[in-house]
Specification:
The protein is of the alpha+beta class. The protein has two domains: 2-97, no CATH class; 111-223, Sandwich (Immunoglobulin-like). It has helices at 2-12, 21-54, 69-72, 81-97, and strands at residues 111-113, 118-120, 123-128, 131-141, 149-154, 157-158, 164-165, 170-173, 176-178, 183-193, 200-208, 215-223. The strands form three sheets. Strands 2-1-4-10-8 form a five-stranded mixed β-sheet, with no helix packed on it. A hairpin with a 4-residue loop joins strand 1 and strand 2 (118-120). The radius of gyration is 35 Å and the shape is elongated. It starts with a helix and ends with a strand.
């Protein structure tokens, strides 16, 4: 009799369900179902935003109707977690980087670093005889040293067959550049190709007086004039 009373009293306690395996299983299933529903809504929302952005719509209309598996797949055909990740990065890439983001794998801009005593890239030009080819080169002084006036000049350009573009045909402006600490300067490099210059590839060096061994390779491709 006392055992029945004790059992009845135990089952009436509000925390008795903690020790009930069936009740625990039902509670866990309920939590998992609610979590899956919330995750599905989040995935569907990101996919709608990404699709609206990719189709050129600034503010896509979000419907409350659930998406099926085919609709939930992103433009790559993936479902579930994959659309969330890919669609998110698609939206971020278009908003932050923009449609005109530059390719990081593109050619490196020619530059001379006076403080580090190193060069980056090279000067590549194409010209038709007669003609003129121009480009821009940057000088950088990221340190605290004042390099004063730096003189930039280019020697003659040589082809493998012995043909030459003389040094006075390579124009640097300005030729003397003041380089105080924490400064950068751009200079123009212009190559004038005379009518008697034979087609071919001419190579030389652009030199700067601000650092030991500071130079940039120069390559000029001279093409024949169209007949």
């Amino acid at each position: 009799m006392d055992r029945e009373i004790d059992d009845a009293s135990f089952n009436d306690l509000p925390w008795a369900s903690v020790f009930d395996p069936a009740a625990n299983a039902r509670a866990l299933n309920s939590i998992q179902a609610e979590g899956f529903r919330a995750a599905s809504e989040l995935v569907d929302r990101f996919i709608r935003i990404a699709r609206g952005s990719l189709n050129g719509t600034d503010w896509p209309t979000i419907s409350s109707a659930p998406l099926n598996n085919e609709q939930r797949a992103d433009i790559f055909g993936a479902t579930d977690v994959a659309p969330l990740i890919r669609s998110w990065w698609s939206v971020v890439g278009q908003i932050v980087l923009g449609a005109d983001a530059q390719d990081p794998s593109g050619p490196e801009q020619p530059a001379l670093d006076l403080e580090r005593v190193e060069s980056a890239g090279r000067i590549d030009l194409v010209a038709t005889a007669p003609g003129v080819a121009t480009t821009e080169v940057w000088l950088h002084n990221r340190g605290t040293t004042d390099f004063g006036d730096v003189t930039v000049h280019c020697g003659e350009l040589l082809a493998h067959d012995g043909n030459v573009i003389p040094s006075d045909a390579v124009w640097v402006q300005p030729q003397v550049v003041a380089m105080p600490p924490r400064s950068s300067r751009g200079i123009a490099v212009e190559v004038k190709v005379a009518p008697d210059v034979a087609p071919g590839t001419y190579r030389g060096n652009l030199l700067a007086s601000g650092g030991s061994g500071l130079w940039l390779p120069v390559v000029v491709a001279v093409e024949a004039a169209p007949s």
